[in-house]
Specification:
The chain is α+β, with helices and mostly antiparallel strands and 174 residues long. The chain has three helices and seven strands, in the order αββββββαβα. The strands form two sheets. A four-stranded antiparallel sheet has the order 3-2-1-7, covered by helices on one side. Strands 4-5-6 form a three-stranded antiparallel sheet, with helices on one face. α1 runs antiparallel to α3. The chain is elongated.
Length: 174
C-alpha cells in the first residue's frame, strides 16, 4: 500500500514532464513556421533620384511582419554582389550591397539565389547612366516559403492546443 502511494507522485511528475516536452516540441514547429512566414513576407524598395549628374540620393524601405525600416543612402556610389557559399554543396546565394562613402547596406538582409544578379546590374546601370533621372527597384523573398511555414504554424498550434489541457490537468492534480 505504501509503495502505491509513493509511485503516484512519480507518475504525476512523469506525466507533467511528458506534457511539457510535448508542448516544447510543438512550440519549435510554431516558432519555425512564424519565422518562415516573416522571411517570406519581407519586401524592400529602393527609390533613387539623380540630384545632379553625379549625385544619387536613394531611400531604402524594408518591411515585414516585424515592422518597416527606412534608410537614406546619399550619395549612392555602387551596387555590388555579396556571395555566400553553402557548406553542404547547395550552391551559392547572393545579396545586393548598396554603398555610400560612409556605409554599406544590403538591399535585403537575407541571401537569395534568384533575381539578385539582375537587381545589382539594374542599379549599377542606373549609376553609370547619367541621363537616367530615377530608379525604383523592388525585391521580395520567395512566397513559396509560405506553404511549409503555414503548415508548421498549423501543426505547432494544433499540437499545443491539444496538449495544453493535458498539462493543465496534470498541474491541477498536484
Amino acid at each position: 500500500m505504501m509503495e502505491k502511494a509513493l509511485d503516484q507522485p512519480n507518475q504525476k511528475n512523469q506525466n507533467a514532464h511528458s506534457a511539457i516536452l510535448t508542448v516544447g516540441f510543438f512550440l519549435v514547429f510554431l516558432l519555425s513556421g512564424l519565422h518562415g512566414i516573416d522571411v517570406a513576407l519581407k519586401r524592400s524598395t529602393l527609390t533613387c533620384d539623380r540630384q545632379e549628374s553625379t549625385q544619387i540620393e536613394c531611400k531604402l524601405v524594408s518591411s515585414g511582419i516585424s515592422g518597416t525600416e527606412s534608410t537614406r543612402l546619399f550619395p549612392l556610389i555602387a551596387a555590388t554582389l555579396e556571395t555566400q557559399t553553402d557548406s553542404t554543396g547547395g550552391g551559392e546565394t547572393y545579396r545586393v550591397m548598396l554603398t555610400t562613402p560612409n556605409q554599406k547596406k544590403p538591399l535585403m538582409e537575407d541571401f537569395y539565389s534568384y533575381n539578385v544578379v539582375e537587381k545589382s546590374q539594374q542599379i549599377s546601370a542606373f549609376i553609370g547612366n547619367l541621363s537616367q533621372k530615377s530608379l525604383v527597384v523592388r525585391q521580395s523573398a520567395s512566397w513559396i516559403i509560405l506553404i511549409p511555414s503555414s503548415f508548421f504554424v498549423l501543426l505547432g498550434g494544433i499540437g499545443i492546443i491539444v496538449t495544453l489541457p493535458n498539462l493543465t490537468a496534470v498541474r491541477s492534480r498536484h
